[in-house]
Specification:
Barwin-like endoglucanases; mainly beta; 11% helix; eight-stranded mixed beta sheet; globular; single chain
Amino acid sequence: MQIQVLKSKIHRVRVTQAELDYVGSITIDEDLMDAANMIEFEKVQIVNVNNGERFETYIIKGERTSGVICLNGPAARRVQVNDIIIIITYCTLPFEEAKKHKPVTIFPVDNRI
């Protein structure tokens, strides 16, 4: 049996931009991506603390040390600049391996590690 478990989480970062006229995705500072064990084009779930919205998109690599958290395309309608969001990734593991799995969670300060 395979189950989905939390792989990694960027907990409570501030949205710095929302760009409606874009193909779609979330741009994340590459330093935050590295710290959270996330990669470009990985599927993510976004949880908006301000309004309760939950939606999925994929990651685009943002400039290192910029602190950028930008929702692009249709996802830009689900947030406002300065909203606090949680960015979550999951992985699928065999049941016994999942019991031992330890996810990575980071708690940025001012969108930086």
